[in-house]
């Protein structure tokens, strides 16, 4: 017991005596814990914000009625009238018919108010004497509720963002229906509970809302409050019995709120999963850094540990002392990592508040985040320290006290063979997966990728010698003896070199995978436009949002239009499954797109028929002559004959119905278009037609006219925006990798103090010392980058092949990204070496030699 106490005191004194080493060790742990803690805090904060919002959903509602079929035009007005007449019998206090639809409002500059992805809806304003809860009618001082078709009330948070106030003139475009853009005046600002983020709520008077958002015979939903003495559950039961079975959802207010939370939690679970996946990447990278750090620290202390063994300490006591030190620095690193993680979460929160529609809430620092940071800090650190500690305890005291004893001298044969076997198996799985399409082959590629990554971990040290050696010969040649010294240092300890480089390998592998997917997506869009369209112009909504059906009518009447086809969005059910396609309206698809018919059928689309792509034929089994029975929103069954099958064209996926079928499947209030393809009439100049189209659609806030190149560019920019988010997350992992190189080099300088002192003593200049450290870092960084880029490109290429089922075209490697990555890796190598190189150059020869 006394000896254990002595060893603990020795460990604590050792930590205090080597402050730089302690700092670098704690720093490596902080890198591995902060990302995990930050991810948990951020997702907890977003979850709390959504829960707060949905706690205020349906205020005052005891029971709500909505259609069972989401495609239904709504609850019939006759049902509302019947319930109104039976209020006393059923126990209803108040009943309210709600109308709602998508809208866009202009800001003070006349441009569409951007929501960052949050909903922008129009509803009916309910005066206090009608509303179920006073919260829904809470107006800020100086305003009033709308009373006519040209007046609206707007939620205060949206008004502030739009630069609007009471009395401001604006314009509202309906996202549904055929109404023209409306000039409106803001007469009131609403203080709505839970109205955060980019949410927009434009409220019209009840009569106007009914006209705009319904067909006059249906309402979106029916809310009611219970009379005194009637519970929500009792009212729910009575209303269910009063309605036809299986046509409507009858839920209590608590059930409505919980269902909304459940829907958002599905999104949050995916969102959390993505964040935690990146956290896992950061953790893996951090684990390698921590392991690397402890391997070097134990190697530097071999003589010290051997001396303890020589004076009577047992192997267990030596290994326990190392683990005790690991525990201490793990706790410190976990606590500091938690603090930095909270800072990262705050930064992400600030970014999302300005760039997205995510709601906001105070940072949620849960017990889970604290425990995760401490668990990662302590457990990962102790596991990482266990192998070096075990290795140190097995070294005989006399051998360890020799100055030539160094870490990492064990043979590499076994792990290299294991790595080679895994590498062959992984490559085989990737190739086999790339030969197929669909989920199964994608899983095969995923399994092969995991095996290939494991192979790089195992065989990395063996690979480092020839690759780093070759790079060192080429890159170091202009630097003469300094270059050869850097090469020697980089290949001296292949385990350390491989472990340091792997952090960069993993990050750049993911960059290459995502880059390949993004480039291939953009290549698919370019090919679809270049080879699949005849149209000169594409009229579409901003950010690929749908546009009102009235836009198609406006485009058709433009002077100089030869052909124009609007693709209206169709959603219906086939065999109890929801399917989505388009209605080709205003002309024949073959007028604006290239249609290669595969079975001899005419490219003409009958008004009461449909055309399907080859992909749809293969997945749905719909072939020429088959009858597909659609179930519309009212429950009406509509049989449609397949008139033909056309070759896959990404601009026309997945199927199209004629205008007669479209009118039956889509109620007027839900008619929106995805795109309108336009060709000029003979003899009309493209620039003239464009000007005419822009003038005709100028009043629509969300509509933009683009030529083919602009359309491709806009889609590509959206892909780039999505990729930018992923790259930003990966950037943190890469930052960890770079800091890991800094950490390793700094410890390496400490380890080689005597060696550097000897070199300085025999005439090496400080600038030469710095240069050798720079070159060593560059070699390690480029080695990691080469492995990452090769691995990521192969995996990305295979994944794209498996996604052909979902419309992805030929794999396109991001060559510019690959070149930039390799060049950037060399720059990263120099930057990572700046501080270690300066520290090495400041080594005083006599003091360094005396330390031996």
Automatic annotation (TrEMBL):
Listed name of the protein: FtsX-like permease family protein
Family under the similarity heading: Belongs to the ABC-4 integral membrane protein family.
ABC3 transporter permease C-terminal domain span: 277-397, 728-843
Record field: transmembrane: 267-291, 322-347, 367-387, 417-437, 497-517, 726-750, 773-800, 812-835
Protein topology in the membrane: Multi-pass membrane protein
Domain MacB-like periplasmic core: 23-241
Record's subcellular location: Cell membrane
Any matching Pfam family: FtsX
The entry's keywords: Cell membrane, Membrane, Transmembrane, Transmembrane helix
Keyword Membrane: yes
PANTHER family hit by this protein: ABC TRANSPORTER PERMEASE YTRF, MEMBRANE COMPONENT OF TRANSPORTER-RELATED
């Amino acid at each position: 017991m006394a000896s254990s106490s002595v060893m603990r005191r020795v460990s604590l004194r050792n930590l205090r005596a080597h402050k730089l080493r302690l700092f670098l060790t704690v720093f490596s742990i902080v890198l591995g814990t902060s990302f995990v803690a930050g991810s948990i805090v951020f997702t907890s904060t977003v979850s709390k914000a959504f829960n707060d919002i949905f706690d205020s959903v349906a205020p005052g509602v005891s029971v709500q009625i909505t259609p069972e079929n989401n495609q239904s035009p709504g609850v019939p007005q006759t049902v509302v009238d019947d319930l109104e007449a039976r209020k006393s019998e059923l126990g209803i206090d108040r009943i309210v018919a709600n109308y709602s639809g998508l809208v866009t409002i202009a800001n003070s500059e006349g441009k569409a108010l951007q929501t960052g992805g949050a909903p922008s809806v129009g509803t009916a304003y309910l005066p206090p004497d009608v509303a179920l809860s006073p919260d829904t009618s809470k107006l800020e001082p100086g305003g009033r509720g709308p009373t006519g078709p040209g007046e609206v009330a707007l939620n205060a948070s949206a008004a502030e963002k739009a630069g609007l106030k009471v009395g401001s003139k604006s314009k509202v475009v309906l996202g549904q229906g055929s109404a023209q853009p409306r000039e409106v005046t803001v007469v009131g600002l609403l203080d709505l509970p839970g109205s955060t983020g980019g949410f927009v709520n434009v409220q019209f008077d009840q009569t106007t809302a009914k006209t705009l958002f319904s067909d006059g015979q249906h309402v979106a939903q029916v809310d009611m409050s219970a009379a005194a003495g009637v519970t929500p559950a009792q009212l729910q039961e009575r209303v269910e019995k009063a309605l036809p079975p299986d046509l409507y959802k009858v839920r209590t207010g608590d059930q409505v709120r919980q269902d909304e939370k459940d829907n958002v939690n599905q999104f949050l679970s995916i969102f959390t999963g993505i964040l935690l996946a990146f956290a896992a990447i950061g953790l893996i990278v951090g684990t390698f850094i921590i392991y690397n750090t402890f391997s070097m620290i134990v190697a530097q202390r071999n003589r010290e540990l051997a001396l303890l063994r020589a004076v009577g300490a047992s192997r267990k006591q030596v290994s326990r002392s190392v683990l005790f030190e690991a525990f201490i620095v793990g706790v410190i690193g976990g606590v500091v990592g938690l603090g930095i993680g909270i800072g990262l979460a705050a930064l992400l929160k600030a970014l999302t508040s300005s760039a997205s529609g995510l709601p906001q809430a105070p940072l949620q620092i849960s017990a889970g985040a604290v425990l995760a940071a401490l668990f990662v800090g302590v457990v990962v650190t102790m596991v990482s320290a266990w192998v070096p500690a075990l290795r140190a305890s097995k070294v005989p005291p006399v051998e360890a006290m020799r100055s030539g004893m160094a870490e990492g001298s064990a043979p590499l044969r076994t792990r290299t063979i294991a790595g080679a076997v895994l590498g062959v198996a992984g490559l085989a799985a990737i190739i086999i997966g790339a030969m197929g399409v669909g989920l199964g082959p994608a899983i095969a590629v995923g399994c092969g990728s995991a095996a290939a990554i494991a192979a790089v971990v195992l065989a990395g040290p063996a690979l480092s010698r020839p690759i780093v050696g070759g790079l060192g010969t080429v890159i170091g040649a202009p630097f003469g003896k300094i270059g050869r010294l850097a090469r020697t240092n980089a290949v001296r300890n292949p385990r350390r070199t491989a472990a340091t480089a792997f952090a960069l390998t993993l990050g750049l592998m993911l960059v290459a995978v995502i880059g390949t997917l993004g480039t291939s997506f953009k290549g698919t869009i370019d090919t679809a436009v270049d080879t699949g369209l005849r149209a000169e112009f594409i009229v579409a909504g901003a950010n690929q949002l749908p546009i009102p059906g009235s836009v198609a009518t406006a485009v058709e009447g433009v002077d100089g239009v030869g052909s124009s086809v609007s693709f209206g969005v169709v959603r219906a059910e086939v065999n109890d499954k929801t399917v989505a396609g388009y209605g080709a309206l205003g002309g024949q698809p073959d007028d604006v797109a290239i249609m290669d018919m595969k079975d001899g059928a005419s490219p003409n689309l009958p008004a009461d028929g449909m055309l399907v792509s080859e992909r749809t034929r293969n997945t749905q089994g719909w072939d020429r002559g088959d009858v597909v029975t659609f179930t519309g929103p009212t429950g009406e069954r509509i049989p449609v004959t397949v008139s033909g099958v056309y070759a896959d064209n990404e601009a026309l996926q997945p199927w199209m119905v004629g205008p007669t079928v479209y009118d039956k499947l889509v109620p007027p209030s839900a008619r929106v278009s995805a795109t309108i393809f336009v060709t000029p009439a003979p003899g009309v100049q493209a620039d003239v037609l464009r000007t005419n189209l822009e003038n005709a659609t100028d009043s629509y806030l969300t509509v933009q006219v683009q030529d083919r190149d602009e359309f491709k560019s806009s889609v590509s920019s959206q892909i780039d925006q999505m990729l930018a988010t992923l790259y930003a997350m990966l950037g943190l992992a890469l930052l960890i990798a770079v800091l890991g190189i800094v950490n390793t080099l700094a410890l390496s300088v400490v380890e080689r103090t005597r060696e550097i002192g000897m070199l300085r003593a025999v005439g090496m200049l400080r600038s030469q010392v710095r240069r050798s450290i720079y070159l060593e870092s560059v070699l390690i960084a480029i080695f990691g980058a080469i492995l990452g880029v090769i691995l990521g490109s192969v995996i990305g290429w295979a994944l794209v092949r498996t996604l052909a089922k979902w419309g992805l075209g030929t794999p396109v490697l991001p060559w510019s990204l690959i070149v930039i990555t390799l060049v950037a890796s060399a720059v990263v190598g120099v930057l990572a070496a700046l501080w270690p190189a300066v520290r090495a150059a400041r080594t005083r020869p006599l003091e360094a030699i005396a330390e031996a």
